[in-house]
Design goal:
single chain, alpha+beta, four-stranded antiparallel sheet
Length: 300
């Protein structure tokens, strides 16, 4: 046990000394990783929020079902309620629709209006809320096949637009992440390689006294991982500051904007998962960069 702690103490000291000796080279690696993780974190968070907004709009999407003139809503409502895609039903009789229309048009002579239109020209209607946006087309098809149904209408343009935005955002995020990841790995590799070259004389002495390549180069690998962890922590702090700023800004906005922003709030699991993803991603980038840097020296 004492031997293990002695080795651990040596590795930590060598890693810390290497970071101190790196100077501005360390900052180049850390800042590159920070930019990568900051943009990646923002893109991932935005993707989660758009996905949640898509689900929110989709779950509130209503399918309007208009019945034939002689069909009453009471006769068809039990059939609709049994459908697994249905979350809720609002029935509107033609009498209720007529009363609402009269109020909206501010018609005083109701009986005269009925005579001119040959009685109530409206039909019974149902507003059917789907469980989610994916089942809406299938639900509309099933509703149209029911006996007594004349017309089925639903507006899914907003959901389609948000879905397209979500898909486009994912592609942009993937492209930017790949480019910046390669850049961050390249900068980390160059930084670690310069640090190794600066300590070349010490490494040769360690090789002469019989130290293994793993023992010699492990501190440099730990330095690369440290670059990633520090970059992830800084990126997460920037994202947190932006979240707090936007949260305060949105509290003064109209109710509709607040409604949308509240619907885009991350879940507790996502709030905990985001910094873990950033730290893990940063550590992986630092590990790959440092392994590329020491590989040639270790072989030589």
């Amino acid at each position: 046990m004492l031997k293990f702690f002695t080795k651990l103490d040596y590795l930590l000291k060598e890693t810390f000394l290497g970071l101190l000796r790196g100077g501005w080279m360390n900052w180049a690696a850390v800042s590159t990783v920070t930019v990568l993780l900051f943009l990646f974190g923002l893109s991932l968070q935005t993707s989660w929020q758009v996905e949640k907004l898509l689900y929110q709009f989709g779950s509130q999407l209503e399918v309007s079902v208009y019945l034939e003139p002689d069909m009453r809503v009471d006769s068809i409502e039990p059939l609709v309620a049994k459908m697994p895609e249905v979350a809720a039903i609002q029935s509107i009789t033609k009498e209720e629709a007529w009363t609402k229309l009269v109020k909206e048009l501010d018609i005083s002579d109701i009986e005269g209006a009925k005579e001119q239109l040959e009685d109530n020209p409206l039909v019974d209607e149902m507003k059917v809320k789907a469980r989610n946006s994916q089942v809406v087309p299938a639900l509309a098809t099933h509703l149209a096949k029911l006996p007594g149904v004349d017309t089925v209408q639903y507006v899914d343009e907003a959901v389609k637009r948000i879905a397209q935005l979500h898909q486009g955002l994912n592609w942009i995020t993937l492209t930017i992440t790949i480019i910046l990841t390669l850049t961050a790995i390249a900068v980390t590799t160059t930084t670690i390689r310069l640090i190794v070259m600066a300590r070349r004389q010490e490494i040769e002495i360690m090789q002469l006294v019989g130290a293994t390549s793993v023992w010699i180069y492990l501190p440099f690998i730990l330095q690369g991982i440290t670059f990633g962890l520090v970059g992830g922590a800084i990126a997460w702090s920037f994202i947190s500051v932006i979240q707090q700023f936007l949260g305060k800004l949105l509290t003064k906005q109209p109710e509709f904007i607040q409604f949308i922003s509240n619907g885009m709030q991350l879940t507790p699991a996502q709030i905990l998962l985001l910094p873990l993803i950033l730290l893990s991603f940063g550590a992986a980038v630092g590990l790959m960069g440092s392994l590329f840097a020491v590989h040639r020296f270790a072989k030589g």
